Amino acid sequence: MKPLKLGVIGLGDICHAYLSNLQKYPDRIELYACACRTPARAEEKKETYGFRKAYADGDSLIADPEIDVILNLTTPGAHYYYNLEAIKAGKHVYSEKPLAATFAEGMEIMELARQKGLYVGCAPDTFMGSRIQTIRRLMDEGVTGRIVGGTVSCISHGWEWFHPNPVFFYQAGGGPVLDIGPYYMTALLSLLGPVDSVCAMGVQPEAERMIHSGEKAGQHFPVDPDIMTSVMAVLKFRCGAVVNYTMCWDAWDSLVPRMELYGEKASVVMPDEDPNGGPNLFGGDLLVKDEATYRWKNMPRKEGDEEIPWEIAEVKHPYSAVSFVENNRGIGLVDMAEAIAEGRRNRASGDMALHMLEVSEAILVSAREQRYVQTHTDFERPEAMPQI
Ligand SMILES: NC(=O)c1ccc[n+]([C@@H]2O[C@H](COP(=O)([O-])OP(=O)(O)OC[C@H]3O[C@@H](n4cnc5c(N)ncnc54)[C@H](O)[C@@H]3O)[C@@H](O)[C@H]2O)c1
């Protein structure tokens, strides 16, 4: 296939994870142009990653007729604008999450892309990693049986502890539900399909936060009054499963597993203690307990473990360049490039991201208005990753 010419807008903290990974797929993606509001940064990244062109603003990059696909790595407040402008210019889009700051904006993006016949993809793509794909395999091969319930939980003290510019996490489009929640929600959606309805409660215990790392350490900043930093919800999926959902940036720590799914025949647990673990990572341990053996087993198997009784091992990466457990951010875009060439659906799809946005917004509405909220959008569950 002819590689797609990529234009990247936004060259901040996360760009290295993407660009160093995308460099491994020159047959699918050509790192063609990059843009940053700080021109010196754009020039620096051009040299580092071998882009052909550097632009001082996103609009000029979008106007470049050579570019096929835009990778939007700006902060959430700018996702809607660049995603929509890129589609207006006839380009495919792959965006960092969330697709837009509001569901209504997300709808507009997807509607225009449909009219123009363009692909939209959106992070997170961690559900394509070995761990969630192994859960998918356990489900597809009948080990878990029908999933009837579960719980997801990310409990920490907030991202101002590690991020040098954390203010955007506490502004429109941020907060734990829209920032870290998408990893958990997308993992669930990719496994269980669409959500039917939600109910939730949420609070904002601290109106002000302090930056703890980088040059701005010690600076205080306000939290947008609309942002809830501790949210607990219950999600009812259309498949019938009911899942507890906790996203919290107000606690020091927790030992609650990041994710548990309860099947009729087996339970599956992500035991990570680190709040940056769980569905936020591509790989990692899984614990499985089924009715036949009735003891917890590690997947992938740890040395000394008994043989796993199922004919299922950890799902390995279908792309040749990287292992399936590394920080593979961007494989959703690589998959989208292949999907465009093959005329198939991409896995980290705009439709799933739009549903993710609708459910996340429904959680916030439910918490604010103290009522159950029904969802309406639909998407097709992404195909499982092929096993090599
Ligand atoms: N940093 C992480 O660990 C991390 C992890 C996963 C996902 N993300 C997501 O990646 C995205 C970017 O995060 P980041 O941490 O790199 O942020 P950052 O603040 O470090 O960088 C953001 C970049 O976007 C540019 N930008 C912001 N607003 C813009 C605008 N209006 N017009 C043009 N350019 C604009 C900035 O100049 C900068 O280059 C966010 O959506 C975030 O949720 C970040």
How would you describe this structure to a colleague?
With 388 residues, the protein is an alpha/beta fold. The chain has a domain at 129-318 and 350-374: Dihydrodipicolinate Reductase, domain 2, CATH 3.30.360. The protein is 29% helix and 22% strand. It has 10 helices and 17 strands. The chain has a 9-stranded mixed beta sheet with strand order 16-15-14-13-7-12-11-8-17. A 6-stranded parallel beta sheet has the order 3-2-1-4-5-6, sandwiched between helices. The protein has a two-stranded antiparallel sheet with strand order 9-10. β13 (259-263) and β14 (266-270) form a beta hairpin. α4 runs parallel beside α5 (103-116) and α8 crosses α10 (350-369). The protein binds nicotinamide-adenine-dinucleotide.
Question: What layout of secondary structure does this protein have?
Answer:
Elements: E1 4-9, H1 15-22, E2 29-35, H2 39-49, E3 53-55, H3 58-62, E4 69-72, H4 76-88, E5 92-95, H5 103-116, E6 120-122, H6 130-140, E7 147-155, H7 175-179, H8 181-192, E8 195-203, E9 208-210, E10 220-222, E11 230-237, E12 242-248, E13 259-263, E14 266-270, E15 286-290, E16 297-299, H9 331-342, H10 350-369, E17 373-374
Parallel strand pairs: 1-2, 1-4, 2-3, 4-5, 5-6, 7-12
Antiparallel strand pairs: 7-13, 8-11, 8-17, 9-10, 11-12, 13-14, 14-15, 15-16
Helix pairs in contact: 4-5, 5-10, 8-10
The protein binds nicotinamide-adenine-dinucleotide.
Residues 10-14, 36-37, 58, 73-76, 78, 96, 165, 179 line the site of nicotinamide-adenine-dinucleotide (NAD).
